[in-house]
User: Fold this.
Amino acid sequence: MYPVTDTLQRPLRDLRISVTDRCNMRCTYCMPREAFGKNFVFLQRAELLGFEEITRLARLFVGLGVRKLRLSGGEPLLRHGVERLIEQLARLEDDRGRPVEVALTTNGTLLAAKAHSLKDAGLTRLTVSLDALSAEVFRKMSDSGVAVGRVLDGIAAAQAVGLAPVKVNTVVKRGVNEGEILPLVRHFRLSGVILRFIEFMDVGTTNGWRLDDVVTAQEILERIDRAHPLRPVDPNYVGEVAKRWAFVDGGGEIGVIASVTQAFCHECTRLRLSTDGRLYTCLFANEGYDLRSPLRGGEGDQHLRERVVALWSRRGDRYSQLRHDATALPVKKIEMSYIGG
Ligand code: SAM
Ligand code: SF4
Ligand code: SF4
Assistant:
């Protein structure tokens, strides 16, 4: 019976868990200060799922076929004691009897201090977001007073404790940081870090997205290839979102995530759990399914499981494939910082 599949025969394999909707940065493409300013009302403590609640739900999802859990946010390292949650999640076993993968995406600002405890807690994969090396461009993208060096120190600390391979995600926005592509490539080549470039996406409704601001994966690859010739590499597994490329001279590999120009909805096996316990079957969904109420209302695992199976079974989302057909799209979309990217 499991994994449960949706109307497009896609199995449920990945769960993204947002552990906080707060962040210490204001990246213009994610939490623009005009929308997430002083008066923005973040979730209150009682609204957040607790670690026991998250673990109980995660166990249920793993029972339905999920093999990978990714903690995100907001900035997940802002959630007090997140290592404790990782420890609990790392004990779960998937349908093959293997420990589930527990991954984390972070802006890296608190990583230097936490790398050790994250590794000890059982974290298996780490992605750090970094959009520029230049102090000026970094400040412009992140709209924060954080120094780039702090993120680089975090990456170094993660490598030092053996959280390898660390992946670095770079969102490219035209006119802002495309000049950072080659400096980032040069910096991380030969370092063991896998750099991945992401097309700027139209998530949420506050980031003023325009198609003209998207630097396409094709364009990014051409730029890199001219300076450091590349060759394609087979995916690690079916449905891998990033397309892999290796430096011909053996300098390591990079990835590109072409979410806008080469939609991968047909292979999308992800479900998202928001900080306050709502389920989203697509990054671009406009409505979440409230799982917190039945959970807190005392519903048993079997009934909760039935709800999830019903939700996934009727899933037909493929927003990115339909992006250019405005009539087929939701008007109000949920923000990335709320469901965790
Ligand atoms: N705060 C953490 C971080 O920045 O890594 C985790 C949450 S963040 C929402 C997760 C990922 O989403 C980051 O790598 C970020 O660059 C990416 N992201 C946010 N908004 C995006 C957008 N509009 N287009 C593409 N990627 C985006
Ligand atoms: Fe914060 Fe991450 Fe969004 Fe930047 S991308 S504002 S670091 S949640
Ligand atoms: Fe998955 Fe929705 Fe993104 Fe398509 S648009 S890949 S269905 S999250």
